Amino acid sequence: MQVAISCRHGTLRPETHDYVAQKAEKLLTYFDRVTAIGVTFDFSNGTSTAEILVDAEHKHNFVAVETAPEAAAAFDGALHKMEQQIRKYKEKIQDHRRTLPAGSEVPEAPEAT
Which pTM was predicted? Predict the structure, then answer.
């Protein structure tokens, strides 16, 4: 899987480009079903906006946007948001408990007459 990095109204330094690619690929450690990752930077009015789009299997798409003075800081903020979204989604689809939580009582069935 490859990470697509694009920029609007500016360019990234090579070391920042490598940093973004390396960190974005680590999203696969949280969720194996990721099919594509797209990172877009928008430079305007002295601020940088990072937008991360993650496509997963079965039509699940995740989006995270962050604005900061530096491109790397904006990316880190958006990456943190994306990690939270993916963790929450993964927990949601894997929560298949059939037992009641500890401390809850079992409702009694009405007696048949």
Answer: 0.77
